[in-house]
Amino acid sequence: MREQTIIRFENVTKQYAAHEEAVLKDVSFTIERGRFYTLLGPSGCGKTTILRLIAGFIEPTAGNIYFNGKVINKIPANERQVNTVFQDYALFPHLNVFENIAFGLRIKKMKKAAIENKVQEALRFVNLPGYEQREITEMSGGQRQRVAIARAIVNEPEIILLDEPLSALDLKLRTEMQYELRELQRRLGITFIFVTHDQEEALAMSDEIFVLNNGLIEQSGTPNDIYDEPINRFVADFIGESNIVSGRMREDFLVEFAGKLFECVDQGLMPNEAIDVVIRPEDLEITVPGQGKLQVKVDSQLFRGVHYEISCYDEAGNEWLVHSTRKAEVGEQIGLHFDKEAIHVMRLNETEEEFDKRLESYGEELSEGGD
Prior knowledge:
By secondary structure, the chain is of the alpha+beta class. The protein folds into 2 domains: 5-228, Rossmann fold; 242-370, CATH 2.40.50.140. Helix content is 28%, strand content 32%. Strands 6-7-8-3-9-10 form a 6-stranded mixed beta sheet, sandwiched between helices. Strands 13-12-11-14-20 form a 5-stranded antiparallel beta sheet. Strands 15-19-16-17-18 form a 5-stranded antiparallel beta sheet, with no helix packed on it. This is ABC transporter ATP-binding protein. It comes from Paenibacillus yanchengensis. Keywords: ATP-binding, Cell membrane, Membrane, Nucleotide-binding, Translocase, Transport. Residues 7-239 form the ABC transporter domain.
């Protein structure tokens, strides 16, 4: 059986110049075979640098990169079983679709019949059969992207790297291509590593997400893990929309914020420890005044098609964002209700390792309680 781990970063640092801050700082993680990974973060966080290190375009300043268990720090890009789909697709405008896809195979001096078969197979995979003679300049953005992907998969790489390949597409086409890319990855069974700064894209497509900030991995996990259990204020604020307020953990299962005490499902923190509280906008339910857990005044409202986006303030001055199918009026007093499960408590400056241990301990205690 083949080893599940295909890529491993071990304490990898990348610094482009001695007088500059490192772009990656002692980063360690593993990539498993046949999964869809997303590197997510703001501009300059280090996500494209990770892609370039895997591709072999640059070498790490410190640490080791392993491919199938072997160090590849100095292995040149053309000797790695990796192909990259760039943001601008990097197609040859003077070559037609067939020749763009066949380019790498001709470099390998593959026989004509084998090239023909492999190009036709790649075109079927990306739903472009019959486009062999089409000129690149005659194709739409979505079609060009498929050609770029076909050129990547025709060489049968073990990993495909995608550097923000959807960013130049319009919203409708970008959404369609998200589904197509995800389905293509499942059919091929190849490891995809996708770079984006679009949170919705990452949540929709990924098996696992790495959230990067300032050269560090803030948190990694499934889309549900990242969205429902953000490790800190940065992740909570970056992944989706969040209400984040300061509070104190009075004791296990009891948290204070907005000047009131609320039951919650969190435990394992110090009594009276300062914390951040996260409640997602969709977890807040509008009620009549006096019946909700919070009393707020509506400050603004926008119609977003499937819901209203309502901004309001409580008596302590905290702003609350609400996503609701129920309309409210600016200046109106309303109540906000939420379940205790909607409250997520984040320890200040907690590392991912500390967070994981706390969640694991919490899960074990729940399991023992259920026996």
